[in-house]
Amino acid sequence: MDFKKNNNGVILITVLLLSVILVILIPVLTLIIRQEGRLTVKSTRASKAFHLAEAGADRGLWKIKENLDRWNSLLTGPIAGYNNDVTYTDVEGGTYKIKLSSSSNAEQRIITSTGRDSSSNEVRCVEIVVSRTTITSSVSAPTISFGGSSDVQWGPVASVGDLTMSTAYPRKMARGQIVGFDTSSVEPNDDIDGSGYWSWKSYYAVPDPPVIDVNYYHDAANVHEAGDYTPNVDVLPASADLIYYVHGNCTLQGDHLKGVLVVMGNLTMKGNGPRSYAVNIPAHALDQYQKCAGYPDPASMLGHPGPPTVITYSPTKIAFNGLIYVNGNFSATGTPTIYGCLIVNGSCGGTGNLSIFYNDDISATARTSSTSMTTVSWKEKPGRW
């Protein structure tokens, strides 16, 4: 037998088989490479369109954060340039459109942005639902020190520095130390016993204080005081809200005012307020109270209850009903009551029996220099140009 001839035959057959395989595989590989190239290009263009949509969403968010008028105007109609009526070309590689609209929830707005890649008309769309947050605390100041039997109800106390307050409620939020309350047994940002009620939050939960639009209140004020102000008035609860703008210091003693009080100096509250009347309790008032050993259920605590079983409560000795902004320092003696919100740019404290009952409606009406937003939902949705 001629093994050499047989080997040559095997080699020839092998070469032929490999040739056939290569003839079949090369076009397939070429097709795969081309398809991967097209998919890569398509993915790149889709990614570009997506980034264009995100750029539009950022622009839309910036627009409704400009001021309260922008936010409120969406309840009655669209904003020009933000109703899919303008094609923006300021981002390289494509275009985008923006639609701002209201939601079924009056405290939310919808930002819809559609991006289109210029090279292939690839389209992507994102929808973001945001809520407006302005004044979320009953008291907000750089440092807070309440002595005596100061009493804060229905809303948290927030300090970007230290906070001194010995009562177990409401929630306390401080970027510095919380003095006068034992937090050694709980972890930051946790509730006390797993029941859903808590007493304090750590520094990373403390929002920046709202920036009140003092220029707006200056121009809109019903009462202007060029220097110090001691009003000595009693405005009935049913009277229209007034805006008080005080360029100097202000002292409230035996007064009852309603509306907005802006004090560019210091504010001192003395004595008692003259009024008592029923006010609405915020829907989330119960979130502010402990529910642990040694403390009763918040719903049974006089003056501390909230919906659904109790809708209104009548605080006593009300001295002010509304929003107070103090550019300087705030101090209180006696037993006055504030129904609303207190924002202090300097130190905030008191040695008397000050009571503050939080009114969450203030958040919807307060004029701030900018509007803070919280994202409720974010999703990508089918896009059409």
Report the portion of residues in β strands: 25-35%
User: Fraction of residues in helices?
Assistant: 10-25%
Number of helices: 4
Determine the N-to-C terminus distance: 78 Å
Q: Topology as H/E string?
A: HHEEEEEEEEEEEHEEEEEEEEEEEEHE
Q: Structural class, from helix and strand content?
A: alpha/beta
Indicate the overall shape: elongated
Number of beta-strand segments: 24
Number of domains: 2
Describe the biggest sheet?
11 strands, parallel
Give unreliable regions as ranges: 182-200, 291-306
The radius of gyration over CA amounts to 32 Å
Mean pLDDT: 80
Question: How does this structure look, described?
Answer:
Helix content is 21%, strand content 30%. The protein is α/β, with parallel strands linked by helices. It has two domains: 11-134 and 372-381, no CATH class; 139-365, no CATH class. The strands form four sheets. Strands 4, 6, 7, 9, 11, 12, 13, 15, 19, 21 and 23 form an eleven-stranded parallel sheet that branches. Strands 10-8-5-22-20-16-14 form a seven-stranded parallel sheet, with no helix packed on it. A four-stranded antiparallel sheet has the order 1-2-3-24. The protein is elongated and about 115 Å long. The model is unreliable at 182-200 and 291-306 (pLDDT under 50).
